[in-house]
Write a structure and sequence with these properties.
348 residues; alpha/beta; L-arginine/glycine Amidinotransferase, Chain A; 4-stranded mixed beta sheet; 19 strands; 26% strand; Peptidyl-Arg-deiminase_porph
Amino acid sequence: MATRLLPEWHPQDAVQLTWPSPDSDWAALLERIEATLEAMVVAITRYQGVVISVPDTLTRTHLTERFARLGVADERLTLVVAASDDTWARDHGPLAVERDGALTLHDYVFTGWGGKFPAARDNTLTRRLAEAGLFACPVSERGLVLEGGAIESDGEGTLLTTEACLLNPNRNPGLDRRAVEEWLHQDFGVTRVLWLANGHLEGDDTDSHVDTLARFCDPGTIAYVRCDDARDPHYPALAAMEAELRALRRADGQPYRLIPLPWPAPCHDPEDGHRLPATYANFLILNGAVLVPTYADAADARALAALAEAFPGRDIVPIDCRSVIRQHGSLHCLTMQLPSGSLAQAKN
């Protein structure tokens, strides 16, 4: 049977978001992150639907009224009450697999990036959304630990990932590289795994998720983070990662078209000064657009131009993510795309 992990550019019904509760880690920044999420919803619903899990009925009522005032069409918005621990839908959301033309959502175990943070409610969120009747396709619960931000699919059997995450003993300690590759083959139809041994961002809690470093834009194109400041502590590892990417080959033996993304000036937490993981690689592909994180930095314009080159024919939409990186993620980390055919009542 033909199986494939759908790439992000596959047609989508909606983007899934998880709204923060007032008692979450976002408490001190709640108004700021809500403003960012509102901007994302307004932008996304110009192109397709949005599904938001919310902590309670009061929040659902408030957001229904708020988005109506912001001009969001009711048919583009679905709000489901389902408590969560945090907002990172990329890592607790489902992964869409197509098998002989039929769609299944795989629900993997989420442990808060190897037990770093509470994740019990996040780990059951997909199941509860399914029980609420959200999905039109089956949801398959999987027994292994995997986050969506850890893998990139080209939709043609090749998967890009990092050794630091997928081979980390804090995820699936009984699996070596060969066993991980076999699991990826069985679950996703993967025939090739491209492993990156280098690359990291200070302030990242995910053990080097690939979606902070290098991303497929199409089956032959990879956009990646390039550090051009030799004095920056990231420089050696990212230069080594760039060399790895240059050495990679497509299944037909051809090199990838590589699009370097600029390096923003260091962002630091205003309270304790630790460095925050600002990255332009954390963009989100939509049906007709690409949402790009920005940081009020001189490099923002260059990042937008680079991604316009990578995605001809799509609108390039900047989203200010200075609030998001305060909790050590960015735009893509907040989202999970739900492909066409996944929703019981698609709102497109």
